[in-house]
């Protein structure tokens, strides 16, 4: 009791603060999202994501070598495909020589030990900007799962270590796991976006990939019939437990900062690694505030990343990964 117990003793110098620090971020905590485009020498900044780029395969090769040098050991690949290749069923997603398949091979060639995860969902390939097949104003669940399974096989064949389904269809983890087993990909993992909310924070990402739902009659304008309602907590546990039962190796909560209560709750309940995706809108907000001189970029960035890890994240998918590691 005071004055015998004085909490400030443990805060009185850098050394003691380091000694008693409970949460430490290291480069190996991060999963680095990367946006890939066709072309050569292409490195284009995404307007709503300052200092983040879409890159062609040759630049991607340099980028992953740099990441590996920095101690970053895992990437999550997304592709931006030309409108002319988009259709309702995402046929291009299955092209053995498609951009994603070539991107996986490029990364594996450049850096064989770097862990490669691939985004599995139809939206970058969908003429409607949806994560699944659209029919009569709805997103078809089971038909979409079949395509996602084929897509997963295609990514595994190209050399992906993990597939990361980000679509939120029911039962897709089981469909994908069974398909991978059948095709002999017993060692290909699944990181499931298990508690993914219908969030307005995904805006800049949809700019990056030009993948927003289109405004056409009989096409849903948002993703609320498959992504979760921001108001729900128990549902996140149910979704996550189901994905684990279906065979997910890693589960995920997305977005990050507004959902850290969910992260902690899931972390307390499950025995698989929990990933958290600090999404594009979270990145954009800090970049914008820092540009205006209203927030200290580096300090706020580190505080946010620490908060995500403290909440229970074993893996942090973040556009800040490189910036953060440079400060370590
Ligand atoms: C789509 C997908 C999205 C993100 C990752 N995969 C957007 C969406 O669901 O519309 C968002 C990532 C981010 O905002 O950084 N399958």
Topology:
Blueprint: H1 14-20, E1 30-36, E2 43-46, E3 49-55, H2 57-69, E4 74-79, H3 99-110, E5 115-120, E6 133-135, E7 138-140, H4 141-158, E8 162-165, H5 172-182, E9 189-196, H6 203-209, H7 234-246, E10 250-254, H8 260-269, E11 274-278, H9 280-291, H10 297-311, E12 315-318, H11 321-327
Parallel strand pairs: 1-3, 1-4, 1-12, 4-5, 5-8, 8-9, 9-10, 10-11, 11-12
Antiparallel strand pairs: 2-3, 6-7
Helix pairs in contact: 2-3, 3-4, 4-5
The chain binds ligand PBG.
What distinguishing features does this structure have?
TIM Barrel; 38% helix; binds ligand PBG; alpha/beta; 328 residues
Describe the 3D structure.
- The protein is globular and about 70 Å long.
- It has 328 residues and is an alpha/beta fold.
- A hairpin with a 2-residue loop joins β2 and β3.
- It has a single domain (22-327), classed as Aldolase class I (TIM Barrel, Alpha-Beta Barrel).
- The protein has an 8-stranded parallel beta barrel with strand order 1-4-5-8-9-10-11-12, surrounded by 8 helices. Strands 6-7 form a two-stranded antiparallel ribbon.
- It has helices at 14-20, 57-69, 99-110, 141-158, 172-182, 203-209, 234-246, 260-269, 280-291, 297-311, 321-327, and strands spanning 30-36, 43-46, 49-55, 74-79, 115-120, 133-135, 138-140, 162-165, 189-196, 250-254, 274-278, 315-318.
- The chain has 11 helices and 12 strands.
- The structure holds ligand PBG.
